[in-house]
Amino acid sequence: MSTVEITQNLPLGVTLPIYMDNHATSPMDPRVLEAMLPYFTTKFGNAASRNHSFGWDAEQAVETAREQIASLIGATPKEIIFTSGATESNNLAIKGIAEMYRERGNHIITQVTEHKAVLDTCKRLEKYGYRVTYLPVKADGLIDIEDLKRAIDDKTILVSIMAANNEIGVIQPIAEIGKLCHEKGVIFHTDGVQAVGKIPIDVQAMNIDVMSITAHKLYGPKGVGALYVRRRNPRVQIAAQIDGGGHERGMRSGTLNVPGIVGLGQACAIAQAEMPAEAARLQSMRDSLRAKLEAALDYVEVNGSWEHRLPGNLNMSFVYVEGESLLMGINDVAVSSGSACTSATLEPSYVLKALGLGDDVAHSSIRFGLGRFNTQAECDYVADKIIGIVKHLRELSPLYEMVKEGIDLSKIEWAAH
Amino acid sequence: MAYSDKVIDHYNNPRNVGALDKSSETVGTGLVGAPECGDVMRLQIRVNPETQVIEEAKFKTFGCGSAIASSSLATEWVKGKTVSEALEIKNTDIVRELALPPVKIHCSVLAEDAIRAAIGDWKKKNGVEETATVAAH
Is position B107 annotated as part of the catalytic site? Predict the structure, then answer.
């Protein structure tokens, strides 16, 4: 089959492959790239060079970016620390606070569906004598604020709860958590990676003390991120985890990635200007995708709260069809699956399991991550494609046949292997 | 993950999909795997009582592309073989034929189990003595 042939059969507005995995990473906005380009070549200076114009230009660009980021989240520029990305930001926040406030207490509270950059950091701290509480989530993926209230004790120094989940897109009650933490005098860190630039986040109104941000989830470059660190009411201190030249007020040494930082700043400025319109557009496309799939297929389930969810996220299980086989049938569409077969560990998604889903439902899940560059035509194409493949695979599925015959699968003694 | 052309072919055009009457004396049914593990295979054979030749084979599989391909291939291979010849099929033959990567070897093991389970069921129904036991794993 030639490429021309394929293209001719496609509806207007669809070119293959389609990228619909924007929670993993997003394509860079051309406007971001344009802003970055001079800082690779003509304006290549080191922002820490204080005695020539190359350094001044670079420093000016960095300070502009700081303002752009701060403006998006309601912070002040001095509260923005640049890092290499979300994983570093989460590590710096949690380890840096744990180290700095060790005298005050050794208890940290997080929750079970956090990103591994938070969970594994907490696991490491447990080895060093910290006590970590992993709050459960309800079936909708949200924590129960009462659980958090009960978990805070006089040794609690830090609560780290993500703003929005990377798999199911659910938005935690951040403002309530922030309010509670401030009442109790506990520092509140949030992994804002999926939320910043997608939904309104205001560190003042939400009482957020520390927040991780990354550029590549909001149409910026990979390898650059930021950490918001509150400077007043209360002033939060963080012990550096990378030592060196004392950059970033001593919290994160290392020559600044000026082009990347310019890109992050520009990405935030665009997000701030376009967020309301973009969120409405994504939500409308996402809703139409769900409606089309549900109209054509039985045994489909949305995973996680529908109400408290990022506008571009749809996580659905196509029960009795295994996720990897589904992905194989739509290899010109980039989405991801919670199926074990798509992971190295052969374990299905821990996030979906935390919602109380059976492994079989978790194995059947697909995450659609809609973003700025997706079109309604693409959503229609993807829906039709998924419907076709699910029907094909259900023809092959002994489980679907058995359920249709009225057999209760839970009553069968499966030979686990 | 890159799939071999043969896996893709079986996935797109699975052979012998369907069901045989499991209550029939001449039919053996093997149902292996578990939904929790992400793989369930059902393989059925119809055996000629005179010649012990497997004249028909059908499958349905819930699982990844490699699991679908392994069971589809298994139905092709058992057809026309006698019961004892079919028991000679090894999972390593399936791995080789489909060029399965190491993480997908369990799919071939499950297909071999499905063949053995189907033959075991047929033997039980027909009072044929078990010669080989299915290795649990």
Answer: yes
Whether A417 and B37 lie within 8 Å, measured CB to CB: yes
Q: Are B75 and B85 in contact (CB under 8 A)?
A: no
Q: Tens-digit pLDDT profile for chain B (137 aa)?
A: 678 999 999 999 999 999 999 999 999 999 999 888 889 999 999 999 999 999 999 999 999 999 999 999 999 999 999 999 999 999 999 999 999 999 899 999 999 999 999 999 999 999 886 554 555 45
Q: Using DSSP, state whether A269 is helix, strand or coil.
A: helix
Name the nearest CA neighbour of A315 among A326, A323, A304, A324.
A304
Choose the mutation target among A322, A336, A347 for the interface with B, i.e. most B CBs under 10 Å.
A322
Whether residue A377 lies within 8 A of chain B, CB to CB, comes out as no
Q: Are A340 and B38 in contact (CB < 8 Å)?
A: yes
Domain boundary, last residue among A214, A239, A271: A271
Q: Active-site residue A341, yes or no?
A: yes
Look up the domain containing A377 and give its range. 3-27+275-411
Average pLDDT value for residue range A258-282? 98
ipTM score of the complex? 0.90
Q: Which residues pair with A188 in a beta bridge?
A: A159
Q: What is the pTM of this model?
A: 0.91
A277 interface with B at CB cutoff 8 Å: no
Domain containing residue A283: CATH number: 3.90.1150.10
Q: Name the active-site residue from B8, B37, B103, B132.
A: B37
Do A285 and A377 have their domain in common?
A: yes
* Cβ proximity of A204 and A174 under 8 Å: no
Reported as a pLDDT band with limits 50, 70 and 90, residue A2 is: very low
Q: Hey, are the CB atoms on A398 and B17 less than 8 Å from each other? A: no
Q: Where are the beta strands (DSSP E) in A291-352?
A: 300-302, 313-318, 333-334, 336-337
How many angstroms separate the CA atoms of B79 and B58, rounded?
10
